[in-house]
UniProtKB/TrEMBL annotation:
The lineage of its organism: Bacteria, Bacillati, Actinomycetota, Actinomycetes, Streptosporangiales. Residues 334-344 have a biased composition (Acidic residues). Residues 319-329, 561-572 have a biased composition (Low complexity). It comes from Actinomadura harenae. This is Uncharacterized protein. It comes from the Bacteria. Residues 303-350, 551-575 are annotated as: Disordered. Keywords: Membrane, Transmembrane, Transmembrane helix. The chain crosses the membrane at residues 39-66, 237-255, 261-280, 609-630, 636-658.
Length: 754
């Protein structure tokens, strides 16, 4: 096929353990079973422990199981949008002649298909293994219109939006008019413009002659991600030693005779510990695999390990493996190319455990470097990646997905450009749109043309363009007005007489300025709170008072009243006069974030109860394992467990109680953030000018996810305990701390006026 897009998916049929959890439980049950003789008991335990690898070997060897073990994937081609099963058969198909358009929601990234009878939601693009750019370019090559729309998929499945329409001013009976695909309330023109710009750059790279770099680099460049700590070899060695120790202990207990219950419990503990260590080390070694790029003028190679030898030897090996030169025009397809029914490893985007992904320079027109997808090392399913490279040929077909997680984007882009490759980087990222929460606005707000919020007659009202108030809220129903800043925009929150919030909206949508609302509400005697404005006035007052001084010399000339008595106090003067000793009225020092008045947020009750339970569980596990281990020397397992289990319960409760007495709490104040324990110890504090955002970090795989960002976007601190996020957000908004990650590109505009 001329144009085809295959979704990212892992390899199928490779050798890997199958169902390790059930086999571990089976091995533990076999160790507890009273089987005689001892050699049969040991054989059952070891066979159950080796079950995952035996089942994986059988599944990898048998052709039928190898074909059916691979994951399914999605494919977009001239046939339409298809889901291909592990055996190559179609699981789902949306025919090309029945597809009227494709849409992608910008809020949750869900792909939807517009057809004659409505709209069908396929799923999130990352789960489908498709990137927005590749989908956009391939669909347009196939003649399928693609639209990026605001909102979520639930907004697109509104039955009122399922009927296609025509452009404004077109004749409804004109069948040749362009069809408007109603895939949402509004289109995200900015996101579509970015994709169109990238497509234009790809077209320019495909049709223009390659430009040699000003200072071409000689020799290949080798870029690799950081070595994991501990290294993979140490992790694998630890897993092997744990497995060997478990085998030795099972054989030793089998030789002594597994007649007693305590002996079988000890064997079960050894089996559980050793198998847990083996499987954990395997998962850790897979997750911590490296990404190594070898970039030459003729070939790009991505592998999991570096080539042995010097870079010159690597260049020689690459030249021998790919002897073709790099022409300036697109190369004609050869009969040896794989058929579309069998995606190549480069199209899959998965680096094999042994070998590498290799792409010849003759097949590459441009490389798109930016965030993308990569295959999960454990499951093979696609997941988001901070850095990935998409290779397009001269027909704008995707020829390879090259993972680059863990590699510096700056070094990678320049290394590619220095060796003659055309590099395209996405533009500025889309601004993060905060949750404005406008669903609580009354319908009358939108029905009044030119409506605005006004303060009159001791309450609030909604007036039309002529100034007539059409909706009133009396003073007795208004418990408080709070003015604050969210994402750089002024907001108002209204509370009822019980103190519950019932309305929140940006002032730009209400068509009233912050100053007008504050001053008008205070003139009418309404309870209004503007903490940021009050903090500004206090700071201005203290800065003004700090310059005032008292005259300390009675013989100096002072601005005193000549009619005042001898006991009159000296007047205040400003500035320093020559020959005058001044006594300054110094302003009080600024309070630290740990001492400033604010809100103290504790860990949630659910988290504390869960931690208590986990502490008790770990203590009981240690008590039972100790009783099984030392039971034969202490009168048997039952006698040892009779006192070790209650002791473990007391130790777990007492240990966590000691920790809970001094648990950390987060203090949010106008001065900044601080973590203070219950006994008053300050673990860390950050001043207000160093905090550019507080919120959940979704950009990186870290625990805990609640972090504090600096103005440059760097993570300053991580909050190790989980406070109530709703209370934390409310506290940040109340004291002027920004909620959410900082947006260095541009501020998010407020929503359009109603």
């Amino acid at each position: 096929m001329e144009h085809e897009l295959v979704g990212l998916h892992g390899f199928g049929g490779r050798f890997r353990p199958v169902a390790p959890g059930p086999f571990v439980l089976t091995a533990v049950a076999a160790a507890l079973a009273p089987v005689r003789p001892g050699w049969l008991w040991a054989a059952l335990v070891l066979a159950a422990a080796a079950g995952p690898w035996l089942a994986g070997a059988v599944a990898a060897v048998l052709p039928w199981t190898a074909r059916h073990r691979g994951p399914s994937y999605w494919r977009l081609s001239e046939r339409g949008l298809e889901r291909i099963g592990p055996d190559g058969g179609g699981l789902a198909r949306y025919e090309r002649d029945r597809i009227e358009g494709l849409g992608v929601t910008t809020a949750d990234g869900v792909l939807v298909v517009q057809h004659k009878f409505g709209t069908a939601a396929i799923g999130p693009l990352p789960q489908l293994g498709l990137e927005p750019l590749t989908l956009f370019v391939t669909a347009r090559r196939l003649g399928i219109p693609v639209r990026l729309v605001h909102g979520e998929v639930s907004d697109l499945l509104d039955p009122a939006l399922d009927e296609p329409g025509h452009p404004p001013g077109a004749d409804p009976g004109d069948d040749e008019a362009e069809l408007v695909i109603p895939l949402g309330p509004t289109r995200d023109l900015a996101a579509e413009r970015r994709l169109l710009d990238q497509e234009a750059a790809l077209l320019a790279a495909a049709h223009e002659d390659a430009v040699e770099p000003a200072s071409p680099a000689s020799g290949p460049a080798v870029l690799a991600s950081a070595e994991p700590v501990p290294s993979r070899r140490r992790v694998q060695l630890l897993g092997a030693l744990s497995g060997a120790l478990g085998v030795v202990m099972v054989l030793r207990l089998a030789v002594d005779g597994p007649d007693g219950f305590g002996v079988r419990v000890a064997a079960a503990c050894w089996v559980l510990a050793s198998l847990t260590a083996v499987h954990a080390s395997r998962r850790r070694s897979l997750v911590s695999s490296r990404t190594v790029w070898t970039i030459d003028r003729d070939t790009i190679e991505v592998s999991r390990r570096t080539r042995r030898g010097r870079p010159q030897q690597a260049a020689t090996a690459l030249a021998e493996a790919h002897p073709q030169a790099r022409p300036q025009a697109p190369a004609e397809p050869t009969p040896e190319e794989p058929t579309p029914e069998e995606p190549t490893p480069e199209e899959r985007g998965v680096v094999p455990a042994r070998g590498a992904l290799s792409v010849a320079a003759t097949e590459i027109a441009a490389l798109v470097v930016g965030p993308g997808l990569r295959a999960d090392a454990l499951t093979g399913r696609p997941r988001r990646s901070d850095l990935s490279v998409l290779a397009f040929d001269h027909r704008l077909r995707l020829v390879a997905r090259l993972p680059a997680h863990g590699i510096d984007a700056f070094q990678l882009a320049h290394a590619l450009a220095d060796r003659g490759y055309r590099v395209i980087t996405p533009g500025a990222r889309a601004p993060r749109s905060p949750e404005y929460g406008l669903e609580g606005l009354p319908e009358i707000f939108a029905r009044v043309p030119g409506g605005r919020l006004v303060v009159e007659d001791g309450g609030l009202g909604w007036a039309d363009a002529a100034g007539e108030v059409v909706l009133r809220m009396p003073e007795d129903r208004l418990g408080g007005i709070e003015l604050l800043t969210i994402a750089g925009h002024a907001w108002v929150r209204l509370y009822d007489s019980d103190g519950d919030e019932f309305f929140a909206a940006p002032l730009s949508a209400l068509r009233i300025s912050r100053t007008d609302l504050r001053e008008a509400a205070r003139r009418e005697g309404l309870p209004v709170n503007d903490a940021e404005y009050d903090a500004y006035l206090n700071a201005a007052f203290h800065s003004a008072v700090s310059t005032l001084t008292l005259s300390a010399d009675p013989d100096t000339d002072t601005d005193t009243d000549p009619n005042a008595g001898p006991d009159a106090a000296p007047a205040l003067t400003s500035g320093l006069e020559p020959g005058v000793v001044q006594g300054e009225l110094a302003a009080p020092p600024e309070p630290s974030p740990a001492d400033a008045p604010g809100v103290l947020l504790d860990a949630t009750r659910r988290s504390r109860v869960g931690t208590y339970g986990m502490s008790l569980l770990l203590a009981e596990i240690v008590a039972i394992v100790g009783a099984a281990w030392l039971g034969p020397d202490l009168g048997g397992f039952v006698a040892a467990a009779s006192w070790s289990v209650p002791a473990g319960l007391l130790v777990g409760l007492g240990g966590y109680w000691l920790h809970d007495r001094d648990r950390p709490r987060l203090r949010v104040s106008p001065a900044g953030l601080a973590v203070v324990t219950r006994r008053g110890r300050v673990r860390w504090e950050l001043a207000r000018d160093r905090v550019a955002g507080v919120g959940i970090d979704d950009a990186a795989e870290r625990m805990p996810r609640l972090v504090v960002w600096s103005p440059t976007g760097r993570v300053l601190r991580q909050v190790t305990f989980p406070p109530d996020l709703a209370e934390l957000r409310r506290a940040c908004e109340r004291y002027g701390l920004p909620w959410g990650p900082p947006d260095a590109d541009r501020p998010t505009p407020p929503p359009p006026e109603l």
